[in-house]
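Re: [ENG-882] Designed sequences occasionally contain unexpected residues at chain ends

Forwarding the minimal case from QA. C-alpha cells:
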C-alpha cells in the first residue's frame, strides 16, 4: 500500500495537532512547498515545533544545509549515478515534462515526480527548486 500525499486540509489539521506552530497562511505555504509529501511535511512540523522559525524553514528549505538538506542530497547523490534519470528530472523541473515513459516511471517510483493530467511534473515545489539549482 502506497502512502498518499496529504491534502491541504490534512496539512492544516496536522498543524492543529501540533498545537498550531504555523499560522494558517504558513500552513498553506508549507503545503504549496511540499504538496503534502508525508515525510517532509511531518519533518517540517517537528522542526518548527522544536524551535525552528517558519521564516528559517522557508528561507532554507532548498539549501543543502537547510531543514530538508539530508533528504534532498540523498536523492541528488543517487541521481548522479544515472545520467539519463538526472537529465529527465532536470527537464521535468524546468516544466518540459518527460516524453520517455520508462524514465518517467522510474522517477515516479522514486517519489520525485507525479503524473497530473497526463503530464509529468515534480512531486513538489521543493524538489523542483532543488533540482533546478543543482542539475
Amino acid at each position: 500500500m502506497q502512502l498518499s500525499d496529504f491534502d491541504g486540509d490534512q496539512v492544516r489539521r496536522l498543524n492543529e495537532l501540533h498545537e498550531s506552530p504555523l499560522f494558517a497562511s504558513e500552513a498553506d505555504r508549507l503545503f504549496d512547498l511540499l504538496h503534502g509529501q508525508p515525510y517532509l511535511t511531518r519533518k517540517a512540523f517537528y522542526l518548527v515545533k522544536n524551535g525552528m522559525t517558519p521564516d528559517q524553514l522557508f528561507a532554507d528549505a532548498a539549501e543543502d544545509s537547510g531543514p530538508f538538506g539530508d533528504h534532498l542530497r540523498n536523492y541528488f547523490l543517487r541521481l548522479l549515478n544515472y545520467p539519463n534519470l538526472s537529465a529527465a528530472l532536470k527537464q521535468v523541473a524546468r516544466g518540459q515534462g518527460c516524453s520517455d515513459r520508462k524514465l518517467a516511471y522510474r522517477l515516479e517510483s522514486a517519489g520525485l515526480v507525479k503524473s497530473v493530467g497526463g503530464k509529468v511534473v515534480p512531486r513538489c515545489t521543493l524538489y523542483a527548486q532543488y533540482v533546478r539549482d543543482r542539475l
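QA comment: On inspection the terminal residues look reasonable. The longest strand covers residues 113-116. Proposing we downgrade this to a documentation issue.
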